[in-house]
Specification:
Elements lengths: L1 H15 L1 E3 L4 H7 L2 E5 H5 L5 E7 L5 H12 L5 H14 L7 E5 L3 E6 L2 E6 L1 H6 L15 E7 L2 E9 L6 H10 L3 E5 L4 H11 L3 E3 L4 H13 L4 E5 L5 H6 L2 E5 L4 H6 L2 E3 L5 H17 L1
Parallel strand pairs: 2-9, 2-11, 9-10, 11-12, 12-13
Antiparallel strand pairs: 1-13, 3-8, 4-5, 5-6, 6-7, 7-8
Helix pairs in contact: 1-12, 2-12, 4-5, 7-12
Bound molecules: adenosine-5'-diphosphate and magnesium ion.
Length: 287
């Protein structure tokens, strides 16, 4: 009866929109007590929109958008797409960058119209020996991106992202199943706190670089916790593989899907709770 019950569990999973890599996944799903949630693209839609533009000194808004948009056009990050699309909508066609480099968790750098341009978090500018724009200090609870070129901060762009419908319900259901929800993000603390408050999470790890997401999962495991991780990004792949159970958003990147044990096909976080319930019921049937 054992293989039959597992097959039924797997088949029921497919109906719910859960793809399971193998029957052994059910056992890890049953045991988890902590669920680490990536913010952008997992708890939030990841469909960001360009909002406000602040310029420093004599910089023109048009030039800021043209140079930042041109560089971000070469990146697939949700923040980059918002900047590139918003810039193109406001200033028209964007030039092609002469050089481009992605700096994971921090932003992008490259050359546009002969200028060395940086777009990203304050830390990206600091690491290049630049002072971040003072406008950043006045922005809280929104994702803010600094823009600099030729050694000087030139302005700030803000992008907004919305919490997904169903995220708060998903967090409540996961909690009801005995899992402690945790928010893990590379974004700033104030943004993380605003999202966490909206969905009902009180344990937050913010400003975590992509390579440190794995370390965060390991630290929780070292505390004796059995960790499920839900993520969508290239940045989340290693953490998904390290977690006791990796759940990938089907709407996310191939890297995340390959690293996960389970895929939530529609990218609906509520289905993560269904997965836990299903595996517990399937295994109870076997025993
Ligand atoms: P999350 O962990 O929430 O999925 P990421 O680790 O992908 O977020 O990114 C963390 C932060 O780094 C973003 O919120 C943004 O501030 C900044 N960032 C990353 N990539 C870019 C980019 N291409 N342009 C601007 N900012 C970026
Ligand atoms: Mg993400």
């Amino acid at each position: 009866a054992t293989p039959t019950a597992l097959m039924v569990g797997t088949g029921r999973g497919a109906q719910l929109g859960i793809l399971i890599k193998g029957p052994e996944v059910l056992e890890s799903t049953r045991k988890v007590d902590t669920v680490v949630l990536d913010k952008t693209g997992t708890v939030t839609t990841g469909r960001m929109r360009l909002q406000d533009v602040y310029v420093t000194g004599s910089t023109s808004e048009e030039e800021l958008l043209r140079l930042a948009g041109a560089l971000e056009h070469a990146s697939e990050h949700p923040v980059a797409r918002a900047v590139a699309d918003g810039a193109a909508a406001r200033v028209g066609a964007l030039p092609a960058p002469e050089a481009f480099e992605n700096v994971p968790g921090l932003g992008v750098r490259g050359t546009v119209e002969g200028r060395t341009v940086l777009v990203g978090r304050a830390r990206l500018l600091e690491e290049a020996g630049m002072e971040p724009p003072s406008e950043l200090a006045g922005i809280s609870g929104r994702t803010a991106v600094a823009v600099a070129w030729d050694g000087e901060a030139r302005g700030v762009l803000t992008v907004a992202d919305a919490v997904k419908e169903g995220s708060a319900e998903a967090v409540a259901r996961l909690r009801g199943l005995g899992l402690k929800p945790v928010l893990l993000t590379g974004d700033d603390r104030a943004v993380a706190e605003a999202v966490a408050a909206e969905v009902g999470i009180d344990e937050i790890y913010a400003g975590v670089l992509p390579q440190d997401k794995v370390a965060t999962v390991r630290r929780l495991q070292a505390e004796g916790r059995r960790v499920a991780m839900v993520g969508d990004g290239v940045n989340d792949a290693a953490a998904l593989a390290t977690a006791d159970l990796g759940l990938a958003m089907g709407t996310g990147t191939d890297a995340a899907i390959e690293a996960g044990d389970l895929t939530l096909v529609r990218g609906d976080l509520r289905v993560a709770a269904d997965a836990v319930r299903l595996s517990r019921r399937t295994l109870a049937t076997i025993k």
